[in-house]
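User: Sequence for Dihydrodipicolinate synthase family protein below. Tokens please.
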Amino acid sequence: MTFNWQGVFPALTTKFTPDDTLDLPAFDHNLEAQIEAGVDGIILGGSLGEASTLTHEEKESLVKHAVGKVGGKIPVILNISEASTKDGIKVAESAADLGASGLMLLPPMRYKADDRETVAFFKAIAQSTSLPIMIYNNPVDYKIETTPDMFEELLELDNIQAVKESTREVTNVTRLRNRFGDRLKILCGVDTLAVEELLMGADGWVAGLVCAFPRETVAIYRLIKAGRLEEARQIFRWFLPLLELDLHPKLVQYIKLAEVHTGIGTERVRAPRLPLVGEERNRVEGIIKTGLANRPNLPDYLYL
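Assistant: Structure tokens for Dihydrodipicolinate synthase family protein:
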């Protein structure tokens, strides 16, 4: 499946049953809401998808199931967050065999690779597959930054095509655009910065709160791209307290709780994560309930 790295790509949460197996019916319920809202692709097994707790077999099951479920309507992207180059290549090969449309690559996990090692890691995986690739650049959480000089080397490979820009540095959109033009597609990876980065020319948005609020997320993206900025700003101002839930180490629990309140998800997480309790739960639920009480009416954005 050929596609452009443009639009809204939810980093989907992984649903679990009470006995800690994959809950595919619950996954389907959320996925259907995403497709109906107009998302442009989905990402499986990312940080929000609890990648670090998923087995290789579970990732394969998710990819196979999602590919069958979407039926070619939108691309299915699998995140690779492995500790070794060998395992990263194995996951890439498996994703292609199962019908995935593309890959998102994190740098090596559990080892702070230097620039040379990080580039070699990304290149080795990219050279093992024909699938299009988006590099996940998040030095805040993963302590390794993919710099413009590193991208200069990586873009020698045709299938490295995009970056999930999560440096928290809005000027990186312009910096990368000035250096690479349209050769490198740029997708905002930080929910709270999406409007600013889209206005500066980002091609898309890898979103988190979209898991609970797909229509609002897609509406903001499409309104901005259509030049209807005031309408997008008004929705974003309402959305911001909810989007800030994406910036916490417990973003998985926070966003899954939001999915419960919007009726398109479950709260179950995989240990060592635990569901929210006490004051923290009350605080997060207060943000969610306030947002729902003031949820805006959306324009007819699907045809923009």
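The domain at 7-229 is CATH 3.20.20.70 (TIM Barrel).
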